[in-house]
Amino acid sequence: MGRLRLPLGVAVVGLAGSLAAALALYRAAGEALDRVQEARLRGVGETASELLRSVPPTPELLRAIMVANGLDGAYVISPGLVVIADAAGPSGAPADLLRVDAARVREAAAGRTTIARAYDVGLLAVETAYFPVRAADGTTARVLALEAGKTFDAARAGLRRAFLLGFGLATAGAVALFGVAARASRVERRAREAAERAARGEAVARMAAGVAHEIRNPLGIIRGAVELVREREGVQLHPRDRERLEDVLGEVERLRGLTEDFLDLSSDRPLDESLVDLGAIADEAARGSRTLHPELDVFVSVSAPPIRADGRRLRQVFSNLLANAAQAGARRVEIRGASRGDHVGVIVADDGPGIAPAVRERLFEAFATGRSGGTGLGLAVSRQLVERHGGTLALSDEGGPGAVFEVRLPLRRVARERQS
Question: How far apart are CA 379 and CA 208, in angstroms?
């Protein structure tokens, strides 16, 4: 939740700013629209009242005024609230006080024009205007009443729709902004973590390389001394002592392998390239695995043309993959491969428990391991060796019950050499 506070704050500020701007524009536009509509209604009323000074009011005339100006009602009323003429109703009857504002009629009879919202019909707001109709002597004997509803309210409805659309767009923009900010935050966090891991890995790799260089000679001395004792005293040694010497030699070999991994990880030692048969290399790795992990059955089926590569390093790649499978609890591994266009693809699939989701993202990073007692070097070194050959090593989504890795190595260099 803490990582989302910044993008959430950015989105909230953006949404608040957008809504404040939209609301201010809506209010300003509403006020401007009210002024325009009032001016329009005033212009219609003043023109019509001037006309009625010389022309007697009739329902037909009032209806023509109403239709021409998009009004909802037009009638002439006496100061005593008797309808003189109505565009849509009977004349000579007392005015409907639910419709007519008696106080404003009296104001108009006194010579003062008023325009205001009068009543609502459902969601429709009706605005009324009362205009004095003066006689030839200047007195006001009649009042012209105009009602504006549907036509005038349509503009307000359009403004409301525009505001709601703006609100929706602002909300969508804020959501999009939140998404962009959250994504940027995640990308920045991942980049920072990757940089930190890379820095730690580089520092550890340099240190490990230094240690590896320092222990290679002592390991050689220990190995030579143990082999010398075994040769000189082999017959006289108790079987248990001979087993212990073999155990020491096994641990020395394991440490030598670790030093080689550290050196491969920390430096680009030159490849000893030649034309090699991937099938034969996979068979060699399988035979070595049967010695170290007799419980693991390895089946090899690789049919591909020779490629230019460092056979010893590629054997190390396959040996690492087999060792990982055995240490994870697999009992069967298939190594199958064939040429595919400009590359050779080799699949290494085991029947073990697979790769834990928590480890997948960092699977090929140095010192990242999900197995107790693991060094986390095998896959990192293997990927580096394959990439130095111009290929790729990746965890495949083939859907097997265990882990499935794919090694892809290029054929292009071999083709160019044969052409030359």
Answer: 17
